[in-house]
Amino acid sequence: MKINLKTSKEISKMRVAGQLAAEVLDMITPYVIPGITTEELDKKCYEYIVNNQKAIPANVGYNGFEKTICASVNQVICHGIPSEDKILKNGDIINIDVTVIKDGWHGDTSKMFLIGKVQPHNERLVRITQECLYKAIETVKPGAFLGDIGAVIQDHAEKNYYSVVEDYCGHGIGQIYHEDPQILHYGKFGTGLEIQEGMCFTIEPMINQGSKYTKLLHDGWTVETKDGKNSAQWEHTLAVTANGVDVLTKRNEEAF
Ligand code: MF3
Ligand code: CO
Ligand code: CO
Fold first, then answer.
1. 253: in domain
2. Which of 70, 101, 106 for a ligand 1 pocket mutation test, highest count of atoms within 8 Å of Cβ?
3. 206, 126 in Cβ contact below 8 A?
4. Fewer CB in a 10 Å sphere around the end CB: N or C, the chain?
5. Which residue CA neighbors atom 11 of ligand 1 most closely?
6. Domain of 138: which CATH number?
């Protein structure tokens, strides 16, 4: 395992990419409403990144993926492919995941959107999943362990009678989109690698209302819950600093 530690200069460049990715989520927010297709959302994000941000949508062409965003609705856990057949409807929950490359550096982030009036149990899933991400971010500092991240996520999810998806994980990130280390969203305190200044990685918990098991659809990308119950995900790209963490994809509405 080769972990590329980043200098503060490199982290500044990652912050530029991270902020562009965060701005894509802000830009798309007013359009994420009943009646729109996930293809239309994808097109808007593509145009914005290429024409306005003068940046590169990292997902396009990544291992054969053809779209700018992943758009994962309801029981879709991650990697939902935008489609003109997928029309958002009242009560849906959707994750939009976007990665931008600027000056060779990646910023990767995702958030959940509630479409119209959402049932309380779905709203609760979305909220608890965001809390899992935020609690995990709070544990990140030099001297803590990667296992602590998974442990706090698993604790909070299971306390709320949810399960943690184990088949997909967070990742190191920098000039390479997915690099070491893997960031598991389950685990035990005090285990795994010790966190060091200069590490950059994502945390992106996927939390299920039912069981943790997943199934990959025949399109080769879309990952759904095996039991058909809903799933939620939130993601940030982080840099480890001398005393804590810098959330490179922070949006204005977030405190940290
Ligand atoms: N952004 C996703 C992640 O968080 C990866 C998407 S890969 C794609 O790591 F090809 F599906 F876009
Ligand atoms: Co990621
Ligand atoms: Co992502």
1. no
2. 70
3. no
4. N
5. 79
6. 3.90.230.10
Token pair for residue 161? Answer: 């009678």
pLDDT, tens digit (0-9, with 9 covering 90-100), for 85-94: 999 999 999 9
CA of 236 to the centre of ligand 2 (A): 8
Tokens of 172: 């190191």
pLDDT in tens, 177-215: 999 999 999 999 999 999 999 999 999 999 999 999 999
pTM: 0.99
Domain that holds residue 221: 8-247
Q: How far is the CA of 196 from the centre of ligand 3 (A)?
A: 22
Site residues for ligand 1, CB cut-off 6 Å: 59, 62-63, 65, 70, 79, 97, 99, 108, 202, 204, 221, 235
Domain count, the chain: 1
91 CA to centre of ligand 3 in angstroms: 23
Rounded CA-CA distance 44/157 in Å is 33
Do residues 199 and 5 make contact, with C-beta atoms less than 8 angstroms apart? yes
Q: Is residue 3 part of a domain?
A: no
Interval between CA 80 and ligand 1 midpoint (Å): 10
Residue pair 204/220 in contact by the 8 Å Cβ criterion: no
Q: Specify which residues 131 forms β-bridges with.
A: none
